[in-house]
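Hello, quick one for you while I still have it in my head. I'm working through a protein record and want to make sense of it properly. Would you mind checking whether the tokens look sensible for this chain? I owe you a coffee for this, so here goes:
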Amino acid sequence: MRKTTGLAGPRSEMIGAGRFAALVEGWRDGGSGPLSRRLAHVIRSRISSGLLGPGMVLPPERSLAAALGVSRSTVVAAIGELRASGFVTSRQGSGTWVPASGPGAAPSGTAAERLLPAEHILNLAAAVPPDASQLPDAALDVAELASVVPAHGYAPAGLPVLREAIAQRHHALAAPASPAQIHVTNGAQHALDLALGAVARRGDIIAVEDPTYVGIRDLLRGRGLRALPLPLDLIDDPGDHLSKLLIAGRARAVLLVPAVHSPTGRVRRRRQLEALARQLDTARLPAIEDNTLADLAFTGGRPPSLAALCRRAPVISVESTSKVGWGGLRVGWIRAAPDLIDATVTERGRTDYGTSVPSQLLALRLLSTYDQVISRRRQALEQSAATFTQLVRKHLPDWTCQPPDGGLSAWIDTHADTDLLLGHALRHRVAFAAGPSASRSPSARTHLRACFDRPAVELEAAIIRLARAANDTRRHHTARHPPGRGHALP
């Protein structure tokens, strides 16, 4: 890679064709459709992650075509697609380069800011699929939209045909449901918020796992609810202690990620979930179960739903296509008793009249091949988790990283203050979710959540950058607390 000057800027760098080919290795397997689309998709991914940074000059089209083993027309079409979407800039005689700023940046103020940092950063913070490439090809035409029932397209609880398909899926998972027990939402976060609104009022106490999914805190704060932390070990082996704690703590409801846990990647099996269900039945409190990751246990199949195991406790199940398919589809759902569904639809009606009809129709098509998509996702995620764990142990041997058994993220003890580490990491253009965003426990201060659902080349670059950030953190601590002063590493 060599420095160059010109329209791309005085600090621009030209990447060689061989290095570029290595950077996009496996590109033919990414995305779907023509080779040009797949190539454009992978280049876009490398630009968004910062591996092809601002000012980077791409190899000439002929050299690039030779290195990738494709025709020049394939490269030209891919570059044209990237240029049209603002990811690259070209000028005849000057080449093609990555512009100084990306096509967009995330807003600030909530969990969205923490999980969705600006472009040109290797983002391990958001535990979501990196792109839509695993989705099957799908297209909609006006005739399909014209056949929608109801014809005006407003269906606050969801299109009847999609509610029926989701109900059938729950029936196959041993948690029978009718369409009247399904409410289609704008993703799982929306569903969890509506579920909380149906069972709790401002000032109520909600029992939640600690650590838990990083978006829970924003939901509780937004509704004026208080959290009763439940240690994970108590959920894994509840004995008769859980129901006593729930009653003594005056919990109004319980919100759990029971099957495949986030952020730890623990997978709870039937025996543990049956014991948990017995404790919930004893307490007879409404239980909200977030099952957005339940399909992504690497081995042993999907754990059973609390809705299928509880006999007395009312269970509200929340699921989504965001982890199996793509977050941008924005289709989730609630499964609950009809009266609770009615309550969530009423709550929703104050601000929203229904999920996008095209998104619902695309989700309907996705559900028709869902089991095949899930199988591919499980295999790919298990391999990515193994790669990620090996990289952490190689480059950061002082960190404690237990291989996850499912999901998209790992919960790592860095033995350092992760808020401080995150500041250094962002300067090295890599992001993660610091432990305090998922837990109130003091021990969470040294933990981080990192998503491993990324291409191997991005995972390796991210871990190398994290290792550099960890070194900066140590130097920062040493400078503030020289040896012999009796200070421990934070």
